[in-house]
Amino acid sequence: MIPEEEEPNFGIFKDCLSTSVISRLAPDSGKKKRAIKGRKNEIKPVAKTTTAGDGENDAAELAEFIEYLAEEVFPSLPAEVRLLSYAAVQDDAELVDKYATPLDSALLESLIKPMPLSVADSLCSYGLIQDPSNLDRFFEPALSTYVTAVTTPPPEHTPAVLASRPDGCEICQREHLPLTYHHLIPRQVHAKVVKRGWHKEWELNKVAWLCRACHSFVHKIGSNELLAQELYSVDLLLEREDVQRWAAWVSKIRWKSR
Known about the structure:
Blueprint: H1 7-25, H2 55-73, H3 79-82, H4 86-91, H5 93-98, H6 105-112, H7 117-125, H8 135-151, H9 159-164, E1 179-183, H10 190-195, E2 207-211, H11 212-220, H12 224-230, H13 234-239, H14 241-250
Antiparallel strand pairs: 1-2
Helix pairs in contact: 1-2, 1-8, 1-11, 11-14
């Protein structure tokens, strides 16, 4: 059971962890999901033998696996990590240095060492890692993203942006997930965009509200220049077949209400 005061950070951690898992198990990733293997007599997702067309069961099983994995890993993290926040790092300069990303290898090792043995076992069984020694490679992106997410200052939204915030992700339509705002014209190319006349300056702050998994996927399908030139609206993103396939697949992966 996750303590009430840790629930918000647990949700963010699960979301960051899901991005790592989903990116490796998405249909185009080439990895085949296998049965889950955890500690004996432990309540955990039950692996199912799925067949073509069994997408709903397959997605439900994956959601259960991610939930199970997050519930195994998060409580093993130090209390200061579980309760990390923007306010906390403002009050403690040592935390800023300690949890600077990319995470120091010694720190990463100290975070991974207390994890239950079932974690490596399950990841190996799912084909997410080849060997327990690969735990650091698997968890580094999720932990780094989590630290960044919980310590980033709250964004200064304009009233228009706040008013436009939807209930769910604008790509997969999943609700009750933490949403991030994706700059439809990436900030890294703002100067180039205006100089070359691709967009007007007033258009630069257009955003889409995306779950972390969809946000990560969007940045994988093209460079900042391509996003700025060709994929600068949600409608344009959703016209792409790869985005449609991704949305149809990831939308089936939903968390159980706590």
